[in-house]
Write a structure and sequence with these properties.
Shape: flat
Structural class: alpha+beta
Number of strands: 5
Number of helices: 5
Distance between the termini: 64 Å
Helix content: 25-40%
Length: 197
Amino acid sequence: METEYGYHIIQLIEKRGDRVNARHILMRPKVSDDELVACLSQMDSIMDVVKKGDISFEDAITLTSEDKDTRANYGIMVNKADMYSSLYGTSKFELKDLPAEVAKAVAGMQVGDISKPFIMVNQQGKEVVAVAKLRNRINGHRATMKEDYQTLQNVLTEKLSEEKVDNWIREMQKKTYIHINEGWGNCEFKYPGWVKE
């Protein structure tokens, strides 16, 4: 069976009703250097047409991109680097959160610039040819409601959630019996009050 990750050879070991016990082998075909060079050349030609203004960057994406994650939203990348980051799920990235090849491509670009085609390894571990367009850049600054509303909202929501969990633990601590083995009673606990003196 072929998927976006490569070719799978699957063996069914056992089946009971809706439950199955299976194992598989995954084989990822290697893209040849000639194919990568040909793809780089083709991508370069497409970007020449975009730069001439015959087609927009966004239209070129919908017509040529094979990336299912960004094709439907005109190439906008979504930050999935750190789910605990205030930027998670947004289209904003810190340079360190970008894939290394993309970060290298956009590091010296100005807003609106389109990079030269480059080879990178995608999330599925495949070598692909990509280009990057820098839509916006926010230089280091003091946070404002106008420019950083989503980030500030995420920080506040996270802080309120932590406080709610903290209060819940402290309330449950009063009603919950635990036994602490001898020798551990003098430890420093995050929530005081576990050991009655």
